[in-house]
């Protein structure tokens, strides 16, 4: 069964350390919802599916999968070079190079690529928190 931040992690964190859940939740939501509604040269683009695919792909790499998410979206929206970059940044950040950063989404603005990095790091942090919180719940 799914163990999610929204349904389980948030409330447990708040019980363990008052108000930290609200701060973490605000941070996760802010980064997740951050968008200029652009993609490269295209304006007024709804990037919700892309942001969700990035977040869920990171969680998937950490063994967290959601029954209500169609992982086919990940393969549709994330090209191979981006997947390689994501895996490196989230699993082996010390191996990330400028060359790797430059190799994906060449036509995109740096601000859009930085946003991808923010999403990746927040998704990783949330996945790590979920593992720890689930262990506490089981104990």
TrEMBL record:
GO cellular component term of the entry, any: nucleus
One record GO biological process: positive regulation of macroautophagy
InterPro entries, per the entry: Sestrin
One GO MF term attached to the UniProt entry: oxidoreductase activity, acting on peroxide as acceptor
Protein name (database record): SESN3 protein
Source organism (scientific name): Alectura lathami
Organism taxonomic ancestry: Eukaryota, Metazoa, Chordata, Craniata, Vertebrata
Gene from which this protein is expressed: Sesn3_1
